[in-house]
Amino acid sequence: xxxxxxxxxxxxxxxxxxxxxxxxxxxxxxxxxxxxxxxxxxxxxxxxxxxxxxxxxxxxxxxxxxxxxxxxxxxxxxxxxxxxxxxxxxxxxxxxxxxxxxxxxxxxxxxxxxxxxxxxxxxxxxxxxxxxxxxxxxxxxxxxxxxxxxxxxxxxxxxxxxxxxxxxxxxxxxxxxxxxxxxxxxxxxxxxxxxxxxxxxxxxxxxxxxxxxxxxxxxxxxxxxxxxxxxxxxxxxxxxxxxxxxxxxxxxxxxxxxxxxxxxxxxxxxxxxxxxxxxxxxxxxxxxxxxxxxxxxxxxxxxxxxxxxxxxxxx
Length: 315
Description:
The chain has two domains: 21-250, Rossmann fold (3-Layer(aba) Sandwich); 259-313, Winged helix-like DNA-binding domain superfamily/Winged helix DNA-binding domain (Arc Repressor Mutant, subunit A). The chain has a nine-stranded mixed beta sheet. Strands 12-14-13 form a three-stranded antiparallel beta sheet. The chain contains eight helices and 14 strands. It has helices at residues 43-56, 81-94, 117-130, 151-168, 196-200, 259-268, 276-283, 287-300; strands at 21-23, 27-28, 32-37, 72-76, 104-106, 134-138, 171-177, 203-209, 214-220, 226-236, 239-244, 274-275, 303-305, 310-313. The protein is α/β, with parallel strands linked by helices.
């Protein structure tokens, strides 16, 4: 019997650690996660807005840029096809697109049960055929006959969706309800059922209704989140759509500069020559990334190495 493979921490791969986005700041690329909230707080509107954005390349909620476009696959388990069509029409119009031009596919089966081996296989085959960038399942409660409070029953369903995401490189947005008695709880802890639902998500969105508007909270496994973004359901000529009330949302940068630019910025901010140790600490980079970028800058003459092994901007 052989042991498990290991490696030194310093020799681990040094891939890109900055987040990659499907929708900038809102949903990570090929992420699984939950869009949660109380009943009647426009979760389905937000899910469909994300679907239109990914399919059209237009910003989600007219505020969050799309980084990866592609087909979208939606299973609306509660709303009629006519309602879904009308909502998508209105959202597409608000985005400046025509619904007929968008590759949004709707699963029309009367039901889809993730605890059914047959339905899991059919979903896998459908995703393999359409190759969507985003899969929306709305809502979780209509996708199974298990006890949501029992982790041992929830985990296999979430595990299947994770396998689906990895096998087909697809983002999975699972719409789910919050508990009715969860007013004072943190958003992720307010979800109905097992805590596995909160822990499963790479990107999670939470909606709650206040007296004046809806509030959107965003959390990510590998990137900073946002809290308290104000939304309202606006009635436009084409139909109701969600609208961001906080005009600063679109101005919030989410992408970090590349490693070389981060080094240049750190040296620009320093009036003195900087040691490699201090420079790397300011840039907050892995050793391999830092040294590769620094060597390239020195070779290009954009950074100068002094006789006492300190660094400054090139002359």
